[in-house]
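Supplementary Text 2. Reproducibility record for the structural model of the 277-residue chain.

All settings were left at their defaults, and a single model was retained for analysis rather than an ensemble. We include the record here because the model underlies the residue-level annotations in Supplementary Table 4.
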Amino acid sequence: MLSLYLKEVGVGAALFTSAFLIPQFSLNTDVNTLVSATSAVFAIVAGFFIADAMSNYLRLQTLIAEENAALITIVANSKKIDPRNEPAVRVAVDAYMIAQLEAGTLNHILRTEKEVDNLSAALDALQVSEGGKELYDHVLTMREKIMSARQEILLAAKENLSSGHWITLIVLGVLVVFTVLAIRDGGAFMNMVAGAMMVGMYSILVLLRDMDNNRLLELKLGFDNPREFFHALDLPPYYPRLTPAHYLVPDDSGTYRIGDGKGGFELVHASKGRDRS
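Retained model, structure tokens:
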């Protein structure tokens, strides 16, 4: 994560510096008109793609929230329906969320089918009394909601931009860079303006990429959301093995779980060390 961030900063710094280092040149035409035209076309095309990616971004947030709420509701209602078999449901839900985190992507649907099947089996094994039928019907409704959300996540998490779209954007970006460099007059101010415009153009492409491949949302939800989810289940929060240390926040008892990369996890007590599980 840090290396990716440093790479983006490095490219941006190189673009800004290039406005001072590349020799000045001019075009035999109205440069201001060219700059306006190329910038406007780039902004229109990039804006269209950003709006498309943003719609998926917002929908994914909603679907993830709905799925998590449904899972928490299932565990809470299962405890009221059948306290004896509720632990199996809790374990299945816990395993499902852990599988999502270990997948390392929001497009995890095909990698978590086994865990969903185990959850369904645990729900089918609940012993429902006469008074618990209404709650059980609600649990089944939540299960259907999860299945529906999973199918939509499968579609919404896919990248929208094809290679052709990126080629179009890159060609337009190169044209913007070329025309922006042509407006320089040798002064420091115009060099700074040209450098800032190129950095801005590159930042738009990076933002679009991170929205389209869900990296922006994964970084946003990757640690805070699971921590709140496991807290609602009264379980220590779980973190994948390579999670940066500053994201490892324990629960109120000072405990958290960290994956060992082999399908298990280590139970970590903030003041006592680790217990392998």
